[in-house]
Amino acid sequence: MTTYDNSSTAGLTGLPTPPLWARILLGIAMIAAGLLVLGDIVFFTVVSAIFIGWTAIFAGGFEIVHAFWTKGWGGFVWQLLLGALYVAAGIVLLSQPVTGALILTYVLGLMLLVSGFVRVLIGIGHRQQAGWIMMASGAFGILAGLIILTGFPATGLWVLGMLLGIDLLSHGIGWLTYAWLPAARPA
Question: Where, by residue number, does the polypeptide cross the bilayer (predicted)?
Answer without folding.
Answer: 20-39, 46-69, 75-94, 101-124, 130-150, 157-181
